[in-house]
Write a structure and sequence with these properties.
single chain, mainly beta, eight-stranded antiparallel beta barrel, 2 helices, 10 strands, about 50% strand, signal, Ig-like domain-containing protein
Length: about 180
C-alpha cells in the first residue's frame, strides 16, 4: 500500500501538471502581458466548497458553503486590484451527480479595493484522469470590468466525486485551484 504522504504528493504533482497543460492556466500573467481592462488571477487562488450533509448519489437537502480566494491578481487598467473574494451559502436538494451537470450561475467578487464585479455565466464540467475541471464562462454584468468576458477554471481531484457518482462514497468537500481571467 502506498504511503499516504507519497500518494498525496503524487496527486498534487499530477494536478499541477494538468493545470500547466490547461490553456487557461498555462502561463502566469505578468503586468507586462495583461492588457488594459483585463484582470487575471492565478493559483494559489482557490475555492473550498463544503457540503452538509456530504453529497451522495441520491439528492438530499444539503447546505453548501463556498469560499473563493482570488490572488495574486494582475490588472493594468486597475493596478490596485491584487486580490478578491467570493462567498456563498445556500441550502437546496443536491447530489454528487449535480457536480457533473451544466448550469447557470451568478456571483459577485469583492476586490481588495472594495469594488465589486458581478459575473453571470454558465458552468461546464470535464474529467481528465485524476482531476475534474469546472469551467465558468460568462460576462461581468455590473460593477468593475462591466461588459467584459469572464472565464474561471477550477481544477480539483476527481476521486471522491467519481466514487460518489458510482454510489461508492460521499463528497464532504471539494478544494480546487482557481484561475480567473476577465477580458
Amino acid at each position: 500500500m502506498a504511503h499516504p504522504t507519497r500518494t498525496l504528493a503524487a496527486l498534487l504533482g499530477l494536478i499541477t501538471c494538468v493545470m500547466l497543460l490547461t490553456p487557461a492556466t498555462a502561463a502566469p500573467v505578468s503586468a507586462t502581458s495583461a492588457s488594459a481592462g483585463d484582470v487575471t488571477c492565478t493559483p494559489p487562488s482557490s475555492n473550498t466548497a463544503t457540503f452538509n450533509p456530504p453529497l451522495t448519489s441520491t439528492p438530499q437537502s444539503t447546505t453548501v458553503s463556498s469560499s473563493t480566494q482570488y490572488g495574486p491578481c494582475v490588472s493594468l487598467a486597475q493596478p490596485a486590484v491584487t486580490s478578491g473574494t467570493r462567498t456563498a451559502l445556500l441550502t437546496q436538494p443536491r447530489s454528487c451527480l449535480d457536480l457533473l451537470t451544466a448550469s447557470s450561475i451568478t456571483y459577485t467578487i469583492t476586490w481588495n479595493t472594495g469594488q465589486t464585479s458581478t459575473v453571470s455565466g454558465n458552468t461546464t464540467t470535464s474529467t481528465a484522469g485524476a482531476v475534474i475541471v469546472f469551467t465558468i464562462t460568462g460576462t461581468v454584468t455590473s460593477g468593475l470590468f462591466a461588459g467584459s468576458s469572464a472565464l474561471q477554471v477550477n481544477v480539483a481531484p476527481s476521486a471522491n466525486i467519481l466514487l460518489c457518482t458510482a454510489g461508492l462514497g460521499t463528497v464532504p468537500s471539494i478544494y480546487s485551484t482557481v484561475t480567473l481571467t476577465i477580458t
